[in-house]
Design brief:
It is elongated and about 75 Å long. The N and C termini lie far apart (54 Å). A 7-stranded parallel sheet has the order 3-2-4-1-5-6-7, with helices on both faces. The chain has 2 domains: 5-227, Rossmann fold, CATH 3.40.50.300; 270-494, Class I glutamine amidotransferase (GATase) domain (Rossmann fold, 3-Layer(aba) Sandwich). It is of the alpha/beta class. It has helices at 17-30, 45-54, 68-79, 105-112, 127-139, 156-170, 202-216, 219-227, 244-258, 296-304, 337-342, 344-355, 365-369, 476-494, and strands at residues 5-10, 35-40, 59-61, 84-88, 116-121, 145-153, 174-179, 188-189, 192-193, 282-286, 291-293, 308-312, 325-328, 330-331, 360-363, 373-376, 379-382, 389-393, 399-407, 419-426, 428-433, 442-446, 454-455, 457-459, 462-465.
Length: 495
């Protein structure tokens, strides 16, 4: 099938991939096109900006977390109802976790047969830019590099020699030249852009990105490259016994085929696949400025497994409604520590229901919220107090990168003996913990974890970890979460 698509890559991180991707998406939307945004890698913040620009959920394409066949099926199913896909790469084009670059942007480009446009930071460089681009062309000829965008160009003379050098030595078109822009519309934090829920002028920033693209990029030529992408075969459902991943993927494909006549409102998917005569378990999801890091597939997988999603705010809701489970994702609770601490009713409800056995699953920021307190600048802010942990914060990341953990102890959501892939990114550290490392559920094979290469704090039906997981890579998680919620609901109604 014809899937118009384009992948925005660079020589390194911080070269301008996100700004260019936002500008392209916003500009093409102004032409009335429906754009499917994708982010290569596990990043949440860039994905949030891409989703805002496209007015569609942004889905992550991460070949470490998700098997290749599921990457293909997820990608092809989600682009069916749109006009084209814009994929933002991560780090440098060939950067990966091993010498073969198995998790690199280049390998994703080959998997998706996506035309690549290379962004180059031209600061204090001229002909050397052509040498770097030529190196990328020759490093792996199977990567389809179709053009170059020059970024941080000093002036017209600088642009002229850059453009002539690249086109002469590399035989590639220069598709745009962006000058050094002094006004910073996208303030950075924690090695990424500020999360959109904290950005009061997010729409204005997207508009500035669109103006930049319209002024400095050859949008028509870039669009032609996207439309010229070779046909891509929609992958079959992965072989194997029935399971939540097969149900999720087949439903995703059929739902998006039905929606082909027009774009979905937000990309959200509902399904009746696993409905039962019993009312669905109500799974609360805390989604506010403090907790905003959720892969869309994780929430969709919970729905496919039979849950009803109830959106909550730990900042403003006065306590919890009737729930059968609670999912607390990542975020930056430290930037909202005062407001979280002030909402005592909500914190008390979380602790009380955890004590009663409510199934709770928490990742990273959610783990911190379930601790006893956060200490910031010498001030202690009380949290939910499910676990006897006091967290502090460092100026440098205390955990950053992909993780692999082996499940060694019983818990509500993962079978013992299995290995799970995820990623961690946090500045928090443990100041005090009244527990024992050997009691933690996970042994870290890769990554730092919570304590001495272990992770997974477990109490009754509550499990909290620094690792984020992806439902397409760990499909059993959603089914286990919903099953635990159904059991809890049944017992609750009996009581």
């Amino acid at each position: 099938m014809a899937f118009p698509r384009i992948l925005i890559a660079a020589l390194r991180g911080g070269s301008g991939k996100t700004i260019v991707s936002l500008g392209l998406i916003a500009s093409w939307r102004k032409r009335g096109m429906a754009i499917a945004p994708f982010k290569k890698g596990p990043d949440f913040i860039d994905a949030g900006w891409l989703a805002l620009a496209a007015n569609q959920l942004c889905h992550n394409l991460d070949t470490f977390l998700i098997p290749a066949d599921r990457i293909l099926l997820s990608f092809t199913s989600r682009i069916l109802a749109t006009d084209l896909a814009v994929i933002e790469g991560n780090r440098g084009l060939y950067d990966g976790i091993d010498i073969k670059g198995t998790t690199s942007t280049s390998e994703l480009a080959k998997l998706l047969k996506a035309p690549v446009v290379l962004i180059v930071d031209c600061t204090k460089s001229t002909r050397t830019v052509a040498a770097m681009v030529l190196g990328c062309l020759q490093f792996d000829p199977e990567v389809n590099i179709c053009g170059v965008i020059l970024n941080r160009v000093a002036g017209s003379r600088h642009e002229s020699i850059l453009r002539r050098s690249v086109e002469h030595y590399c035989a590639l078109p220069v598709l745009g030249a962006i000058p050094k822009i002094k006004a910073e519309a996208f303030p950075e934090r924690h090695m990424g852009l500020v999360p959109t829920p904290e950005h009061a002028w997010a729409d204005e920033s997207i508009e500035k990105a669109a103006e930049m693209a319209q002024q400095y990029l050859d949008l028509d030529r870039l669009l032609a490259i996207a439309k010229g992408a070779p046909p891509l075969k929609a992958n079959k459902i992965p072989p194997g016994p029935p399971g939540p991943d097969r149900v999720f993927l087949s439903e995703a494909l059929s739902n998006f085929c039905r929606a082909r006549a027009g774009p979905l409102k937000t990309g959200e998917m509902k399904t009746d696949t696993l409905k039962s005569p019993e009312p669905p378990p109500r799974i609360g999801v805390i989604r506010d400025a403090a907790f905003q890091f959720y892969y869309p597939e994780n929430l969709e997988a919970l729905e496919v497994a039979g849950a009803e999603i109830v959106t909550l705010s730990a900042l403003s809701d006065q306590g919890l409604p009737s729930l059968d489970g609670l999912y607390i994702g990542g975020g930056f609770p430290e930037t909202h520590a005062q407001a979280l601490a002030k909402n005592k009713e909500f914190r008390d409800d979380v602790r009380r229901l955890a004590e009663k056995g409510l199934p709770i699953y928490a990742e990273c920021g959610g783990l911190m919220y379930l601790g006893e307190s956060l200490v910031l600048d010498g001030i202690t802010y009380p949290m939910a107090g499910v676990f006897p942990v006091i967290f502090g914060f460092s100026s440098r990341p205390q955990g950053h990168g992909y993780t692999i953990f082996e499940v060694e102890r019983p818990n509500p959501y993962f079978k013992t003996g299995v290995q799970v892939r995820g990623h961690e990114f946090h500045y928090s550290n443990v100041l005090s913990w009244q527990g024992k490392s050997e009691a933690l559920a996970f042994r870290m094979i890769r990554g730092g974890g919570f304590d001495v290469k272990r992770d997974g704090l477990c109490y009754k039906n509550t499990l909290a970890t620094y690792s984020h997981i992806h439902a397409l890579g760990t499909p059993s998680w959603a089914e286990a979460m919903v099953e635990a919620g159904a059991i809890y609901r049944k017992n609750r109604l009996k009581a």
